[in-house]
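hiii so um. not sure if this is the right channel but i have a protein structure encoded as tokens and i wanna go backwards to a sequence. like what aa goes where. can anyone help
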């Protein structure tokens, strides 16, 4: 089993910044993809693979930066120049391989980001 624990959401004024974190724990052999999705149809916000490949939604390019600490199985999302339309519940997602050899894919519980105008 894998647990994803998210933190860092909150309320911020437009133009402000937030940093989301998501730590994966459990019987993990390796993690391939870690990323963030918004509540709207689980729409991609940003994702990073084990090889360092990045992918961003067009709406956040130049404002958000995704990074990961492989030693800590943690992914971060630095959110700058926030806009009211960024308001959403953000879900962490991770997939990879368990020590048993089974592949996994898990979602975090979600963290609320609210940007006031």
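sure thing!! here u go:
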């Amino acid at each position: 089993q894998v647990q994803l624990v998210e933190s860092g959401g909150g309320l911020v004024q437009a133009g402000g910044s937030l940093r989301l974190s998501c730590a994966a724990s459990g019987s993990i052999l390796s993690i391939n993809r870690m990323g963030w999705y918004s509540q709207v149809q689980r729409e991609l916000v940003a994702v990073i693979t084990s090889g360092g490949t990045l992918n961003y939604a067009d709406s956040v390019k130049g404002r958000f930066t995704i990074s990961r600490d492989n030693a800590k199985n943690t992914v971060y999302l630095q959110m700058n120049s926030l806009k009211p339309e960024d308001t959403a519940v953000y879900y962490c997602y991770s997939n990879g391989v368990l020590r048993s050899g089974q592949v996994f894919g898990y979602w975090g519980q979600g963290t609320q980001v609210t940007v006031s105008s």
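oh and The chain has a mean pLDDT of 96.
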